[in-house]
Amino acid sequence: xxxxxxxxxxxxxxxxxxxxxxxxxxxxxxxxxxxxxxxxxxxxxxxxxxxxxxxxxxxxxxxxxxxxxxxxxxxxxxxxxxxxxxxxxxxxxxxxxxxxxxxxxxxxxxxxxxxxxxxxxxxxxxxxxxxxxxxxxxxxxxxxxxxxxxxxxxxxxxxxxxxxxxxxxxxxxxxxxxxxxxxxxxxxxxxxxxxxxxxxxxxxxxxxxxxxxxxxxxxxxxxxxxxxxxxxxxxxxxxxxxxxxxxxxxxxxxxxxxxxxxxxxxxxxxxxxxxxxxxxxxxxxxxxxxxxxxxxxxxxxxxxxxxxxxxxxxxxxxxxxxxxxxxxxxxxxxxxxxxxxxxxxxxxxxxxxxxxxxxxxxxxxxxxxxxxxxxxxxxxxxxxxxxxxxxxxxxxxxxxxxxxxxxxxxxxxxxxxxxxxxxxxxxxxxxxxxxxxxxxxxxxxxxxxxxxxxxxxxxxxxxxxxxxxxxxxxxxxxxxxxxxxxxxxxxxxxxxxxxxxxxxxxxxxxxxx
Length: 513
What we know:
Blueprint: H1 17-27, E1 32-35, E2 40-42, H2 43-59, E3 67-71, H3 76-88, E4 91-94, H4 101-111, E5 115-118, E6 132-134, H5 137-144, E7 160-167, E8 173-179, H6 180-194, E9 202-204, H7 211-221, E10 227-229, H8 235-244, E11 247-251, H9 257-267, E12 274-279, H10 286-296, E13 300-302, E14 305-306, E15 310-313, E16 318-319, E17 337-341, E18 354-359, E19 366-367, H11 371-377, E20 383-391, E21 397-402, E22 407-409, E23 412-414, H12 416-424, E24 429-439, E25 443-452, H13 459-466, E26 478-482, H14 497-506
Parallel strand pairs: 1-10, 3-4, 3-5, 4-7, 5-6, 9-10, 11-12, 12-13, 25-26
Antiparallel strand pairs: 1-2, 7-8, 8-19, 13-16, 14-15, 17-18, 18-20, 20-21, 22-23, 24-25
């Protein structure tokens, strides 16, 4: 008997997000696909707009694999652009509009887009000499030049769909390339592990440049549900949407939960179904978890994932509505393999802390134009998350720490290395260490300890030097001027961040401020 060690690739093996959306529009043409505060489109209407844009971009010379950058706050046109890219084989680079100019330049240069779409509030931001279209009248004019009919384009499952930016320990943004295959798998896993129905919708209030909005938005639009697009965190608009249609995953972030809970309590109105709500429970006070899950009558997700992995690997269980959790052990997702390994690369025993590594169809394809980072991330045939966990005797996974030190502030990743580098480059500064501090509003915030010449450097001066060079959410909430002896190191020379964290939590200042 003849066996095949590895199946040959074939175009029929796999699918594309654009094709799935097209078929969903054919099957549910009159269902509401997307709505915002002032407009709604059925699947038939949205599909026609997507086709018009796809045709117009092709007429402008864009080719398969070209990048289309989007610098905009949440709006229906944002979704339209992504879907047009999905149908044409273009890659939508979803740029973080919170970035400072230097960071924005890096993000745009990295992907070298053939077209840039910007919303009106960012029309004056510098995107270089590249062609750009401002959303609004110019966007509608562009659509008017396209044909609403379906174009026949060959888009493969492994083709790139999105570039979602994620900072690195070097301080430079990396572009995580997410394929059609990964996005389809992410939607399937959400429905399987969280009991989300095909008819469940989504409220896209968190930025669409985040996987927390991009992933479920596309999953919803390939299944026939309604996506309510909200321009940022607006408790009233979110509450309206919660009463209007069922929701699969109600994304919650530190810093917004109490305000949404206040809005829901003030209204005391019946809500539609919510299948699951939440974010990484470790970042949210237990009392807030109990309160918001009770108000939504939905389990709170005890999740852990990343831009590169989607909701996998540790988002397979939840906290019952109204319950104040005493343990945050997480269950492994379906459709992924996990191992915990030590520094020598060998699996660790239950109870021992090791780096979590993953194999899954949900994984991204690599970092755009960064071969070295990609090879390091996938070394040995596993994706290295850089996060430390331990597994208990019941098989639950417990978050221990971030192997690559990371601060999670209001849903945004803040990497100390980037801030430390900028501070260290200031005149009069000898050393700088940035650590995390728990915060009841944002989950975590950055705190800086700086060794500097007291006569030349002040905390206010450091803050002024950082202003405009990093996004506001990265700005240290406190800056402490300390002596060199106060930056303790272990025998191998590594900084004892744990000791500085204790000082930050206690609110203790250094010898100079």
